[in-house]
Design brief:
Elements lengths: L2 H38 L8 H12 L2 H35 L10 H28 L5 H14 L1
Length: 155
């Protein structure tokens, strides 16, 4: 493996470490926030700590960074498979037709079309991941506190 791959793996591990620390820090902040919101009267005293914790982690956790990390892993798994499929189809057309594929004058057309396909695949992966994130966007903490207060007053 080259040094470049090791640098990429080190950067990926650092990214995972930062996200893990941010989830842990969010958990710690929730522990302090519950008492502060209850003491200030913003949070109904009948709201359970478990319900507040779940709402706090959902609204304040680093979900966007986690989705970006997931899309990176998805791309890292999908692109080599897509590359192998593209090269298989390209070679099959070459061998089965008995002549070079359309516009094949060397490696340039192959590399150009391959680059376009890979960029399109990366855009599709990013679009799908961001579509999922925006469809399941975490609510604001104020909205969650209002919802918890209304649920506690109904019960």
């Amino acid at each position: 493996m080259s040094a470049f791959v090791f640098v990429l793996l080190a950067a990926l591990l650092c990214w995972i470490g930062v996200l893990a620390f941010r989830w842990w820090a969010t958990s710690r902040a929730e522990a302090m926030s519950f008492g502060e919101y209850t003491a200030s009267g913003e949070l109904n005293s009948r709201v359970s700590r478990r319900a507040f914790r779940k709402s706090y982690m959902r609204s304040e956790g680093p979900l966007f960074g986690t989705v970006l990390l997931g899309s990176t892993f998805l791309a890292a798994i999908t692109l080599p498979i897509l590359l192998a499929m593209f090269n298989f189809v390209w070679r099959s057309v070459w061998e089965n037709s008995g002549k070079p594929p359309l516009l094949e004058l060397g490696e340039l057309p192959h590399l150009l079309i391959l680059t376009i396909v890979m960029v399109a695949a990366l855009f599709a992966i990013a679009w799908l991941c961001m579509l999922w994130y925006h469809t399941n966007r975490p609510p604001k903490l104020r909205t969650e506190i209002a919802r918890l207060n209304s649920e506690a007053s109904e019960a």
